[in-house]
Amino acid sequence: MRRSRRRRTRRRRRVAVRLSADWQEKLETNVAYRRWYLACPNTGPLVSNFENLRCAETSTREEWDGRRPCFGRPFRPAGTLRCVTAPPLPGYRHVYSGKVRDLYEPEDDNSRLLIVASDRISAYDYVLASPIPDKGRVLTAMSLWWFEQLADVLPNHVVSADVPDAVAGRGVLVEKLTMVPVECIARGYLTGSGLVEYRQSETVSGIALPAGLVDGSRLDEPIFTPTTKAEIGEHDESVDFSYVEKAAGTELANKLRQLTLEIYSRGEAIARQRGIVLADTKVEFGLRADGTVVLADEVLTPDSSRFWPLDSWQPGRAQPSFDKQFVRDWLTSASSGWNRASGEPPPPLPDEIVQRTRARYVEAYERLTGHAFV
């Protein structure tokens, strides 16, 4: 029995090496990599531990317990990445952590989830070391406000905002849904990755656009530009509508496109009345057991959307923004000293950038909702 078990272990390790040839040299030559790999919990095939865990601060099995998933690009020697640890909540089980949100399941009800928005901020597929104070509260309050504005368009996943005191203001109890495996994006303006594709082919997600558009150009009609839903640390890839049809079926794909564009159009009209341009937005949908499409996650926040001041909108240049583009701009400026192509994680944000980012999130909330943030 022991011999058979050892043989299976050796076979699994050989498979992992074949699938991850570039890691074989790292394991053989770098003690830090090898110690990390051997410390990973044995959950699932070795190759998943090998490539998908992305935290370098822990080196023992005990330190890893309850701390996955972790964020950043593939593993580097200790000290370069930060592992996210969700705080324990009495009466709830921690089941997942994303770039910003922590998910818990009530111990007495497996039909619900508690979603908690943290103050973490991500950029360029990294979770940054510097949190933005009150960011989670702003995102939660803004999503709840938008869910109310969209209630006549489709149902949303919110059950209650009555949550434990420890996460009050940033936690929401929601329905557990089957999530649609694509990111649904609507664009009313040309910028970002859409602009990059347009400059190459005058298309975005396979949709032909008029010649002569520039950064910040308003499109004649909003367009549906879905992407894949990538793992943490990987890039979402732009796809065309046929991809959504294959992933979700033609009927559901058409429904997702219609709802995404309707949500964008409603949000764009409301934002414009308040002096804000909604350039684009990403929404996520889930399905109830009866097939009902439900709006989930967050909606029309500075994390999921691009917001620009209407009075300074000027096509042909990068626009000032109310979203985390401000952080991206600093990271890629000479002031940060960070080379995005270096493979190294970004540096901590200076206090001034942190405070100015917080102010932008709060201003977006107050201008859109008309409520003071307290």
From TrEMBL:
Single GO MF annotation: ATP binding
EC number: 6.3.2.6
CDD domains: SAICAR_synt_Sc
Classification via InterPro entries: SAICAR_synt/ADE2_N, SAICAR_synth, SAICAR_synthetase_CS
Pathway membership: Purine metabolism; IMP biosynthesis via de novo pathway; 5-amino-1-(5-phospho-D-ribosyl)imidazole-4-carboxamide from 5-amino-1-(5-phospho-D-ribosyl)imidazole-4-carboxylate: step 1/2
Gene Ontology biological process terms from the UniProt entry: 'de novo' IMP biosynthetic process
Keywords: ATP-binding, Ligase, Nucleotide-binding, Purine biosynthesis
PANTHER family attached to this UniProt entry: PHOSPHORIBOSYLAMINOIMIDAZOLE-SUCCINOCARBOXAMIDE SYNTHASE
Protein name: Phosphoribosylaminoimidazole-succinocarboxamide synthase
